[in-house]
Design a protein that fits this description.
40% helix, alpha/beta, two-stranded antiparallel sheet, disordered N terminus, 2 domains, 8 helices, Rossmann fold
């Protein structure tokens, strides 16, 4: 295309050159940054980071993996859509599983998660925008831990999505700690489906802003079909008021 542009003279050459520059600029803006993995050290928790695709300052989404899960895997599920306008940060749980992966401990996980997020934000630097708080996503055991983090988060997490867990949200704690929107979600073949739907309805009766999102005929795992539900979930979490 470039050789063709230079061979032509006059207005056509100018138009062709402008199109080439515009295309190059578009590719540069939309090219997805490679994920960054910071390994666990003696004093620092491990974390996986998917920077936002566009330049400038962006909000942060934190995603917590399930029992014996991996931050690499949970990040991969959400990265393409979340990083369209936010950074995605996936802390690694500290407990190691015999068959691989990691699990969240019973206590002390709040500090571990916050330290992992701070470590990621330090790397991202001025590209982080905390003025509107963070979004928090938790799956399975990660949903239990995410709920505890949100209910004691002092306003850090106004937007929360919990997937596939038998959780009992405390609307008083949620309100006191600045949670503005809570999305509960599960597939119809997940044993947690009916419970989470009922909990969403219970919270809604108290006036809390909540919603249940069904994920179709799937069980307690992610399938490729999840990608078609995620835009609706993220859009709802991002609404104001």
């Amino acid at each position: 295309m470039g050789q063709c542009c230079w061979r032509r003279a006059g207005v056509k050459a100018k138009v062709c050159l402008l199109l080439g520059l515009a295309l190059g600029s578009f590719v540069a803006r939309t090219a997805r940054a490679e994920p960054i993995e910071l390994p666990e050290t003696d004093g620092e928790p491990g974390v996986v980071i998917h920077p936002a695709q566009a330049p400038g300052a962006h909000r942060v989404t934190v995603a917590l993996h399930g029992m014996c899960g991996s931050p690499v895997n949970i990040c991969r599920i959400f990265a393409e859509q979340v990083t369209a306008d936010e950074h995605l940060i996936c802390p690694r749980a500290t407990g190691r599983c015999d068959g691989g992966g990691s699990s969240w401990p019973q206590a002390g996980f709040e500090q571990q998660i916050e330290r992992a997020v701070q470590r990621a934000e330090a790397l991202l630097g001025e590209r982080v925008d905390e003025t509107h708080g963070r979004t928090l996503i938790g799956y399975s055991l990660g949903a239990f831990r995410a709920l505890e983090v949100a209910q004691h988060g002092n306003g850090k997490y106004p937007r929360v999505m919990l997937i596939g867990a038998k959780i009992y949200p405390n609307q008083k704690l949620l309100r006191e700690n600045g949670v503005e929107r809570l999305l509960l979600s599960a597939g119809t073949r997940d044993m947690m489906h009916d419970h989470m739907q009922h909990e969403s309805e219970r919270l809604a009766r108290t006036g809390f802003v909540t919603r249940f999102l069904g994920l179709g005929p799937v069980g307690h795992f992610f399938t490729p079909s999840f990608a078609q539900y995620l835009p609706d979930a993220l859009q709802w979490l991002d609404q104001q008021g």
